[in-house]
Design goal:
This protein has 3 helices and 16 strands. It is mainly β and 293 residues long. It starts with a helix and ends with a strand.
């Protein structure tokens, strides 16, 4: 368990470090964040408590500076910007040495140079769907000594974008597993999940799900058996909650049956990287309907 979470942390730090790149400028190495990527790049970072801005084209990189001389700012950055953009008619007069103002200027220039340039500030249009489902499960991540199945009901709220990240979505799910006659265990669960659409057609989706974190509230009855005197067997009721990081995977399909609604079928929690099963084959199927809000 510990090595697994250590790996997750290492991957997170690796991805975080890769959000920055190393650049050489005047014989020094700087770790900079590229905030605009195009014909002309805008780079920045906070170095020694101070914002430092750079622009680059190919291998040519220059820092944007604004030193103060005789009580007046020299605004050298405007000259640098003009030099890098003199092939277009674009004024630097109103440009300030701030991230937002520099972004505006560089984006305007890149748009003039490239008709296919995409403004990185473009906001993602977020949509959501609400879904309801029911099904059965054999609760392989609990004791369930008789491998009994139990009914379940649930709901999920999914957020996604039709414009960008079309194959990706995130969703919060609530599900309640009812106590069965043979297995005196019930469970309410709230989980945070990620969905990737392997097939993403207008009327049909085939997707895989990953459950990252869940909070369980469970109620179970079990019997402590006295092997010497069965009359002394004791039935215990336990109610508790637990926070888990299962990193479990499932798959499903969605078929559009109305202009804004899909019929869904899912096979859930097929395998987990962080939780052990009770040794039984997982049975966790749900059938539902979700609609655009």
């Amino acid at each position: 368990m510990k090595p697994f979470f250590t790996l997750l942390i290492a991957l997170f730090l690796f991805n975080l470090s890769n959000a920055q790149e190393n650049y050489s400028y005047q014989g020094k190495e700087y770790s900079l964040i590229k905030t605009v990527d195009g014909e002309l790049d805008l780079l920045y970072n906070i170095i020694d408590g101070e914002y430092r801005y750079f622009i680059s084209r190919n291998e040519n990189i220059e820092e944007l500076i604004n030193t103060k001389e005789n009580g007046k700012y020299a605004e050298q950055y405007k000259t640098t910007l003009q030099t890098f953009t003199n092939d277009e008619t674009i004024s630097t007069q109103r440009v300030n040495l701030t991230l937002s103002s520099l972004q505006e200027f560089i984006i305007t220039y890149n748009t003039l140079k490239d008709d296919d340039f995409v403004d990185p500030r473009k906001q993602i249009s977020v949509n959501s769907r609400l879904g309801f489902f029911g099904g059965i499960t054999n609760l392989v991540y609990t004791a369930n000594p008789g491998n009994e199945t139990a009914p379940l009901l649930g709901a999920e709220w999914e957020i996604y974008s039709d414009e960008t990240l079309k194959r990706h979505s995130a969703f919060v799910q609530f599900r309640y597993v009812f106590e069965s006659e043979e297995y005196k265990y019930s469970e309410a669960q709230i989980s945070l999940n990620y969905r990737f659409k392997v097939i993403n057609l207008n009327d049909f989706h085939f997707y895989v799900d990953t459950e990252f974190i869940n909070l369980n509230f469970y109620n179970e009855n079990y019997i402590i058996i006295d092997t010497e005197n069965p009359l002394n067997n004791e039935e215990i009721n336990r109610k508790d909650s637990e926070l888990n990081f299962p990193i479990s995977f499932g798959a499903g399909v969605a078929y559009k049956i109305t202009p804004h609604g899909f019929l869904t079928f899912s096979y859930n929690d097929v395998v987990s990287l962080a939780e052990d099963t009770n040794g039984e084959f997982p049975i966790d199927f749900t059938l539902g309907y979700k609609f655009k809000m």
